[in-house]
Structure formats: C-alpha cells, structure tokens
Amino acid sequence: MAFLAKLCPLGPWRAGSDTGERSRASAMLHSDALYSALTHAMSQLGLLDAWIAATAANPRGSAVRFSSCFPFLDQHLFVVPPRSLWPPPASLRVRWKSAKFVPTSMVSLLLNGRSIREDDWTVDGPSECLLPVFRGAPVSSPFRPALRSAAAVDRMGEGVEPHRTACIEFQKNAGIWAAFDFADDAACECWAPALKGALKLLADTGIGGGRSRGWGRFEQPEFTDGPLARLLFGKHTQAVQDTSSAYWLLSLFSPAESDTVNWQQGSYAVAMRGGRVESAAGWGAAKKTSRVIAEGSVLVAASPLLGSARDVAPEGFAHPVYRAGFALALPVAPKRREPLKIEESTETAPVPLEDAVLEIAPETNATEESAE
Questions:
Q1: What is the band of 237 on the pLDDT scale with cuts at 50, 70, 90?
Q2: Measured in Å, how far apart are the chain's first and last C-alpha atoms?
Q3: Using an 8 Å Cβ cutoff, are 285 and 317 in contact?
Q4: What would the pLDDT profile of 78-106 be if each residue is shown by its tens digit?
Q5: Every domain of the chain and the residues it spans
Q6: Which of 20, 146, 159, 257 has its CA 20 to 30 A from that of 229?
C-alpha cells in the first residue's frame, strides 16, 4: 500500500534551485530535501532514532520510500516524465521538450503508446508545465515564479543590504504532492500514521527556504490511500508493467550495493547535490556534495531498485547527516515499441523559422550523463 499527500501552500514557497542562486527557485522539492524535513519533524515527535533505524540505517533497505514533491492543480498531477519516452517527436505547434513537468495523464498516453493530439496540449513558459487544453483554452498554470524584495540590516545599524529572493506562488487549488510507498504491510502499519503526523507538523513549521518569513507553510495535508500506480494513473494502471526490467524514477536515487543497474542501457541524468546542515551541533555547515540519479530517469536493472542513504556530514561532525537516495520507481517499458503518433492540428499555426529549426536540433546538456 501507499498514500499520496497533497500540500496546498498558504503563501510563497521556496525550494532552492540546482545552481544555488538566490534569484532562482524550483517548483520541485527533491526527495532528499523532503527526507531532511521529515527527519526534523520525527525528532520533534520523539521518533528520530526509530526513523533513522527504519530508513537510513536499515541494512535491508528503507521501510519507507517516497517521491520528490511535484506540482498539482485540482485533479491534475504533474511529474517529470520518463526520459526514455520524452519528448515526443518534434512538432511545429507544441514545443514538447520545453516542458519540465507533464500531467500523469500524458505519461499514461506515452506508456500505452496512444496517439497524441497537438490541439489538446500547450506548454506554459514561466512554469514549464505541459497544460491540457479544454474547449480551446488551456487550464491555468499551477504556479508562477516571483521575486520578493527584502533587506539585510546590520545589527549595529551601520548598513542595509537590499536583495531580492525568488519564490514560487501557487494558484488557488494548486500546490505540491508527494507519494509514499512501504516495503511491506508491517512497515505501512507502523510508519504511515507517523508520516502523516510529521506532514501535519510541517504544515505549521514550513518546508524549504524563507521559513523565518512565513514561507513554506501549507494547509493541513490531504491524504489518499491506495496502490501507488492507481494513485498516479487512476483506472489506467495498465500503463505500469510489472514484468518490465526498466524503472522510472520518481525520486532521487543513490544505488545500494545490492542494486544491479545496467548502466549501458536506459536513459538517465546525473545531478550534484549539496546543501547545509540544520542541527544544533553545527548550523549552516556545508554538507559533502554527492552524485545522484535525477527524477525522470529510466534505469534498467535485474531487480527492483532499492537505493540508499549516504552520510554527507562535514568532516569531524558530531553525528551522521544522511542524504536520502531511496528509489521510488515504477516499472515501465525501456523504450517505445513503435513510433509515437502525433495527430497534427487541422489549423495552420504561424511558426518562426528559428523555432522550427530549434525543434529538430539535438538537445545537449553538459550536466547529463545518459545511455540509450
């Protein structure tokens, strides 16, 4: 069993960007940052030692696995799509590759090899979300990036340093969601209530940056229990192939020693993760950086992925500091079995020549390492 949590922010939300720049914010809270927030909450609930033993220090693999936090709007869940199936073939009407987040309904179409109508979709530039179109108009975007002004004032009153900080402002009925899965029924019975309690606590204390300004707080979470595939795809669970040897990651992933990944196949991206410690033993100390496999990657393995947590505490630190890399992944087809059909619009949309050229040019990213 699993459960899905929807969090509706009460104000601005800030998850740091991969570049670490103050002027940029991410709409996605990575699973390692979510683990850190949950660990602080478990400490306040008196469950820290049991939580660490069941997750980071569990030799059999974490009893709880969870996704990164992705945007949602009403019933539409957005997610990073499988890299092996995205983007669809180039189109002169829709810039598929510009979408970072796509609805799970689109992922279902991709996994089932269904045709895609251009008129049914559009990419929202500011949010990088692929939005469904109804009656000729797209649904509203779940969020917008924004910049908020502030000033750092010297305690002695000798100087003021104005600055601007990026944040995410969500629309009404929008927010972020995360999925939680369990190793077995016993783990679910033990940790599902504790996790829901921790999320309710975090609703008041906040998650992410700017918490001293009231950012990162949200309404009491909405929980839905059920099988993971059904929570994501509803009745279209045939999209998930239990017999597949390829796994679509919904979380960051650090391979465990028992994970048998074929790195010569699949389609994956590597990300660098850093950050700072929040602990009474040393607030603000820089964590060790480490490589992880990014969300949306499709890995080929002989058995389901487990993942691990790495101790990234600074040298000589008083206690371990764990970066979670537990795998929450769904089995999918490693590649398209046949070319995906794109149903072109009957209307002619004017497209600048340079845009048409960009659609067919190969996309490059120096930070990615992938194998096809």
A1: low
A2: 32
A3: yes
A4: 999 999 999 998 888 899 999 999 999 99
A5: 2-152+163-332
A6: 257
Residue 351 has pLDDT above 60, yes or no: no
For residue 349, is pLDDT > 50? no
| Confidence (pLDDT) at 19 | 73
> From CA 52, how far away is CA 42, in angstroms rounded?
9
In whole angstroms, give the CA distance from residue 292 to residue 269: 9
